[in-house]
């Protein structure tokens, strides 16, 4: 019952409007090696609700979001949420250091300009995409957004 | 009124919680400006995107030198045509790269810096890059004001971009 409350809860906030050419389309697939040297294949997460978070160590707003993402992964992971981080740092060592410092509990891979362009151009951070269980983009969150709005957006997609 | 250690900690924790509960945009307004922040750049030196577009369209021989001082990965995806990547202003190596690029130029040369990595109030690159050029006695330095980021305030508005390194 408690899990049901955490997974579904009450929807009160208004969902942010997502405007992107990727909206309701299949999320561009990619395969990378994550910072833990494991294969990260977006397709393998079909059946889960994915929050694909583009971040970088130079993005202060991104770092402010991370503790909440860690908490979400713990809380909503059992309900089917999977957060995936893509670091847009030029230097992977900086990303690795922050990954450890922030104790991220979800996979993070390095991005590049090609991956950025696949997602319509990552031309500023923070940026995150919400991908449903069928692999379709349900929302795009650009810039500093109230994290409660993101939470209210993905919660209805999770299994009870 | 005196508070015990526990009382003071409780009040501090409560205030911190209340602050963090505010929406991000409100928090940003009350967050102290860190040294080297883009907020440290005088308003008179800021250039709006539309003003830079006009400047790009002029056929004057004295075109500005436009330098991106943020992320190279962002630069590779899209940048202002004719602009050059000059290293991340937040890193010592980036400042050195910037210094090397402009060192031989006239101190009166018009230089436009831009970044657009993240919201203006959180940009770590522009403040140090601007300060460096000031320190080097450049007198005609402008900084492109992108409130949110390069995507939202430049590319999405249809202003010209090009890709590549």
Give structural notes.
The complex is a heterodimer of chains A (160) and B (165). Chain A contains five helices and seven strands; from the N terminus they run αβββαβαβαββα. The longest helix of chain A has 17 residues, at 60-76. Chain A has a single domain (46-157), classed as Glutaredoxin (3-Layer(aba) Sandwich). Chain A is globular, with a radius of gyration of 15 Å. Chain A is 29% helix and 21% strand. Chain A has 160 residues and is of the alpha/beta class. Chain B has two domains: 1-31; 34-157, Rhodanese-like domain (Oxidized Rhodanese, domain 1, 3-Layer(aba) Sandwich), CATH 3.40.250. Chain B has seven helices and five strands; from the N terminus they run ααβαβαβαβαβα. Chain B has helices at residues 5-21, 24-30, 49-57, 72-77, 92-102, 126-135, 150-153, and strands at residues 46-47, 65-68, 84-85, 111-114, 141-144. Chain B is globular. The N and C termini of chain B lie far apart (62 Å). The A-B interface holds A 56, 58-62, 64, 88-90, 111-113, 116-117, 121-126, 142-147 and B 23-25, 28, 70-74, 76-78, 88, 90, 116-119, 122, 124-125, 148-152, 154-155, 163.
List the helices and strands and how they pair.
The complex is a heterodimer of chains A (160) and B (165).
Chain A lengths: L1 H6 L23 E3 L5 E3 L7 E7 L4 H17 L4 E7 L4 H10 L6 E3 L2 H6 L8 E5 L5 E6 L4 H8 L6
Chain B lengths: L4 H17 L2 H7 L15 E2 L1 H9 L7 E4 L3 H6 L6 E2 L6 H11 L8 E4 L11 H10 L5 E4 L5 H4 L12
Parallel strand pairs in B: 1-5, 2-3, 2-4, 4-5
Helix pairs in contact in B: 5-6
């Amino acid at each position: 019952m408690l899990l049901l409350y955490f997974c579904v809860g009450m929807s009160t906030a208004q969902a942010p409007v997502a405007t992107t050419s990727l909206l309701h389309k299949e999320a561009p697939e990619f395969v990378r090696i994550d910072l833990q040297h494991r294969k990260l294949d977006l397709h393998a997460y079909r059946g889960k609700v994915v929050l694909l978070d583009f971040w970088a160590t130079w993005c202060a707003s991104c770092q402010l979001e991370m503790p909440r993402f860690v908490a979400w992964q713990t809380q909503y992971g059992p309900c089917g949420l999977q957060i995936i981080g893509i670091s847009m740092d030029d230097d992977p060592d900086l990303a690795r250091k922050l990954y450890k410092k922030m104790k991220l509990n979800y996979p993070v891979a390095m991005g590049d300009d090609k991956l950025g362009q696949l997602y319509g151009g990552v031309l500023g951070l923070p940026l995150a995409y919400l991908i449903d269980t069928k692999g379709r983009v349900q929302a795009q969150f650009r810039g500093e957004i109230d994290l409660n709005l993101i939470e209210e957006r993905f919660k209805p997609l999770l299994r009870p | 009124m005196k508070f015990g250690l526990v009382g003071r900690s409780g009040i501090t924790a409560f205030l911190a919680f209340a602050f963090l509960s505010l929406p991000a945009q409100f928090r940003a307004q009350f967050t102290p400006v860190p040294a080297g922040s883009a907020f440290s750049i005088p308003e008179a030196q800021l250039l709006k995107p539309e003003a830079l577009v006009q400047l790009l369209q002029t056929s004057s021989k004295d075109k500005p030198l436009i330098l991106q001082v943020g992320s190279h990965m962002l630069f590779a995806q899209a940048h202002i045509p004719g602009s050059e990547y000059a290293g991340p202003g937040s890193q010592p190596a980036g400042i050195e790269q910037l210094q090397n690029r402009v060192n031989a130029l006239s101190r009166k040369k018009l230089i436009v810096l831009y970044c657009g990595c993240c919201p203006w109030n959180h940009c770590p690159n522009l403040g140090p890059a601007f300060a460096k050029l000031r320190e080097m006695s450049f007198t005609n330095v402008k900084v492109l004001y992108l409130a949110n980021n390069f995507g939202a305030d430049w590319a999405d508005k249809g202003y010209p971009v090009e890709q590549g390194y």
